Amino acid sequence: MASASMPSSVPLDMIPASAPPKGIKSNFVNPDTLETEIITVTVASSALALGLVYIKVYSTLRITRSTWYDDAACVCAMVFSLAYGCLLISTKGNAKHGGVNATLFRHLVF
After folding, report:
1. What pTM was estimated for this model as a whole?
2. How far apart are CA 107 and CA 110, in angstroms?
Protein backbone atom coordinates (compact mmCIF):
# COMPACT_ATOMS: atom_id res chain seq x y z
CA MET A 1 0.00 0.00 0.00
CA ALA A 2 1.24 3.46 -0.85
CA SER A 3 -0.37 5.06 2.20
CA ALA A 4 1.66 2.86 4.57
CA SER A 5 4.88 4.69 3.63
CA MET A 6 3.48 8.18 4.27
CA PRO A 7 4.23 9.76 7.64
CA SER A 8 1.10 10.10 9.76
CA SER A 9 2.02 13.58 10.99
CA VAL A 10 1.68 15.20 7.53
CA PRO A 11 -1.90 16.30 6.71
CA LEU A 12 -3.18 14.89 3.44
CA ASP A 13 -4.03 18.34 2.08
CA MET A 14 -0.34 19.29 2.32
CA ILE A 15 0.85 16.46 0.05
CA PRO A 16 0.86 17.23 -3.68
CA ALA A 17 -0.94 14.85 -6.02
CA SER A 18 2.02 15.01 -8.40
CA ALA A 19 5.09 17.10 -9.06
CA PRO A 20 4.32 20.63 -10.33
CA PRO A 21 5.42 21.66 -13.84
CA LYS A 22 8.90 23.08 -14.27
CA GLY A 23 9.16 26.66 -13.06
CA ILE A 24 6.12 26.43 -10.77
CA LYS A 25 6.35 25.94 -7.03
CA SER A 26 3.59 24.22 -5.01
CA ASN A 27 1.71 26.73 -2.83
CA PHE A 28 -0.04 25.09 0.10
CA VAL A 29 -0.02 28.16 2.36
CA ASN A 30 -2.10 30.56 0.25
CA PRO A 31 -3.33 28.68 -2.84
CA ASP A 32 -5.59 30.06 -5.55
CA THR A 33 -9.25 29.48 -4.76
CA LEU A 34 -12.52 29.41 -6.65
CA GLU A 35 -14.53 31.09 -3.87
CA THR A 36 -15.91 33.93 -5.96
CA GLU A 37 -16.86 31.72 -8.88
CA ILE A 38 -18.53 29.11 -6.66
CA ILE A 39 -20.59 31.71 -4.79
CA THR A 40 -21.57 33.58 -7.96
CA VAL A 41 -22.67 30.51 -9.91
CA THR A 42 -24.45 28.96 -6.92
CA VAL A 43 -26.44 32.09 -6.05
CA ALA A 44 -27.32 32.95 -9.66
CA SER A 45 -28.43 29.45 -10.62
CA SER A 46 -30.35 28.96 -7.36
CA ALA A 47 -32.19 32.26 -7.79
CA LEU A 48 -33.10 31.41 -11.38
CA ALA A 49 -34.27 27.90 -10.47
CA LEU A 50 -36.26 29.17 -7.49
CA GLY A 51 -38.01 31.72 -9.69
CA LEU A 52 -38.87 29.12 -12.31
CA VAL A 53 -40.22 26.67 -9.71
CA TYR A 54 -42.30 29.47 -8.20
CA ILE A 55 -43.74 30.37 -11.63
CA LYS A 56 -44.51 26.69 -12.35
CA VAL A 57 -46.30 26.07 -9.05
CA TYR A 58 -48.10 29.42 -9.13
CA SER A 59 -49.38 28.91 -12.68
CA THR A 60 -50.49 25.36 -11.88
CA LEU A 61 -52.42 26.57 -8.84
CA ARG A 62 -53.88 29.50 -10.76
CA ILE A 63 -55.06 27.43 -13.75
CA THR A 64 -56.07 24.08 -12.26
CA ARG A 65 -56.51 25.12 -8.61
CA SER A 66 -54.73 21.92 -7.53
CA THR A 67 -51.26 20.45 -7.50
CA TRP A 68 -49.99 17.07 -8.64
CA TYR A 69 -46.94 14.87 -8.11
CA ASP A 70 -44.80 16.81 -10.56
CA ASP A 71 -45.26 20.01 -8.52
CA ALA A 72 -44.27 18.21 -5.33
CA ALA A 73 -41.24 16.72 -7.10
CA CYS A 74 -40.16 20.17 -8.33
CA VAL A 75 -40.48 21.69 -4.86
CA CYS A 76 -38.64 18.75 -3.27
CA ALA A 77 -35.83 18.97 -5.83
CA MET A 78 -35.59 22.72 -5.23
CA VAL A 79 -35.25 22.19 -1.47
CA PHE A 80 -32.43 19.68 -1.99
CA SER A 81 -30.78 21.97 -4.54
CA LEU A 82 -30.86 24.90 -2.12
CA ALA A 83 -29.44 22.70 0.65
CA TYR A 84 -26.58 21.64 -1.64
CA GLY A 85 -25.96 25.26 -2.61
CA CYS A 86 -25.78 26.24 1.05
CA LEU A 87 -23.30 23.42 1.63
CA LEU A 88 -21.10 24.67 -1.20
CA ILE A 89 -21.19 28.25 0.04
CA SER A 90 -20.52 27.24 3.65
CA THR A 91 -17.27 25.55 2.56
CA LYS A 92 -16.12 28.58 0.57
CA GLY A 93 -12.77 28.78 2.36
CA ASN A 94 -11.99 25.25 1.26
CA ALA A 95 -12.33 25.73 -2.49
CA LYS A 96 -8.63 25.15 -3.08
CA HIS A 97 -7.07 23.42 -6.03
CA GLY A 98 -8.09 19.80 -5.84
CA GLY A 99 -11.81 20.46 -5.91
CA VAL A 100 -14.52 21.20 -3.43
CA ASN A 101 -15.37 17.52 -3.09
CA ALA A 102 -11.89 16.78 -1.78
CA THR A 103 -12.62 19.12 1.11
CA LEU A 104 -16.26 18.21 1.69
CA PHE A 105 -15.42 14.53 2.01
CA ARG A 106 -12.04 14.83 3.73
CA HIS A 107 -13.18 12.47 6.50
CA LEU A 108 -13.56 9.61 3.99
CA VAL A 109 -9.95 8.43 3.85
CA PHE A 110 -9.50 4.88 2.66
Report:
1. 0.62
2. 9
